[in-house]
Write a structure and sequence with these properties.
By secondary structure, the protein is mainly beta. It contains 5 helices and 21 strands. About 10% of the residues lie in helices and about 35% in strands.
């Protein structure tokens, strides 16, 4: 647990890696304010803005609007692995390890079905507002973000009410949330109350003055948010889940396990090193080729002699791209998108 209010927590990495589908109780929780107490029986979803037919839907209305769909998708906080950037220089935000990620089966209706029912105009952006109240920068406001209309119209963007076949838990967005596969979790808001079709991105603080990728030279005092890159798609990444950092191991055969993601591309290879990247072995991969939004699990066994070792993992995607070697190459004061080689020190005695 990183904080109780707002509630922010991630699972131990060995538990995260224990199941290909992440159970709700093991799925990371990222909150920006208090978790709203909402009743599905009375909850309403408004669809407004540049639409021909504004909608005011109950959950029953929404579920009857279009055929329900279930799809598998990874959600990941943009600050996942922020803790790996801290040794370079301090960053702002919770020091997430590699557990601010999970893979689940989400059930709901496609967002484009709702936009079509409302007669949405061919605008450039779809904005979302949640019921959660955020206190930030001396202000109190409801959480809000947006995505581009081309992404909103794709089949895999859901308005979801269930996770792994069960009703969403309050901390995961009950009774309704957005699920945007391949995008940072910030674009999949929970406790959804309003969808607005508009010709510009959301003017909410979360869209305009947060979740931007900035150069290493920028500080909190010098930041120009308009010059930052809005974080949408997540980068190629891999993490070691077992053994965990500072583990004390017996000499001999040690199995190294972890996960990898590559966005819309497939993970083609994962390399693992026991000497800080001096030499490498190739891990065995396990993924679901029928589910583009799934992650890849990998494992390999190394013979570790007595001494101190730095385990390292790096992924390659099907385009032959790989991760930067050093955390210093991707450092930014917000601590976003840490995709450097994952390094885990262990001791063998």
């Amino acid at each position: 647990m990183h904080s109780e209010a707002p509630f922010n927590a991630e699972p131990p990495l060995d538990r995260l890696r224990a199941s290909f589908v992440t159970a709700a109780q093991d799925f990371y929780v990222r909150s920006h304010g208090d978790i709203p107490k909402l009743d599905a029986a009375t909850h309403r979803l408004r669809v407004c803005g540049r639409v021909d037919r504004p909608l005011d839907l109950s959950m029953a209305d929404l579920q009857a609007l279009a055929p329900q769909r279930t799809l598998g998708a990874v959600l990941q906080c943009a600050g996942n692995r922020r803790a790996d950037l801290q040794p370079v220089k301090p960053t702002s935000g919770d020091p997430w390890a590699a557990g601010a990620i999970g893979y689940a089966h989400w059930t709901g209706v496609a967002l484009h079905e709702v936009l079509r029912a409302a007669g949405a105009a061919a605008s450039a952006h779809v904005a979302f507002d949640g019921a959660d109240q955020v206190e930030m920068a001396g202000r109190r406001f409801r959480y809000g973000v947006s995505i581009g209309m081309p992404r909103a119209l794709q089949d895999d963007v859901l308005l979801a009410w269930a996770m792994n076949g069960e009703t969403l838990r309050p901390e995961h967005g009950h009774p309704l949330r957005v699920v945007v596969p391949f995008y940072a979790g910030v674009r999949s808001p929970k406790w959804l109350t309003t969808i607005t079709v508009q010709d510009h991105p959301s003017d909410n603080h979360m869209q305009q003055q947060d979740y931007k990728l900035l150069p290493a030279s920028v500080t909190e005092a010098t930041v120009d948010w308009q010059a930052g890159l809005t974080i949408n798609e997540m980068p190629l990444n891999a993490a070691i889940c077992t053994p965990q950092a500072q583990a004390r191991l017996a000499p001999g055969a040690t199995t190294i396990r972890g996960y990898a993601i590559a966005g819309r591309r497939a993970v083609a290879r994962v390399d693992v090193s026991a000497d800080g990247g001096g030499s490498w072995v190739q891990a065995a991969l396990r993924h679901d080729p029928e589910t583009p939004g799934a992650w890849t699990f990998w494992a390999t066994t190394l013979d570790l002699p007595q001494g101190e070792h730095e385990l390292v993992a790096r992924a390659w995607d099907e385009a032959g791209q790989t991760q930067p070697a050093c955390a210093g190459d991707v450092w930014n004061f917000k601590g976003y998108l840490c995709a450097a080689w994952h390094r885990v020190p262990v001791s063998v005695r």
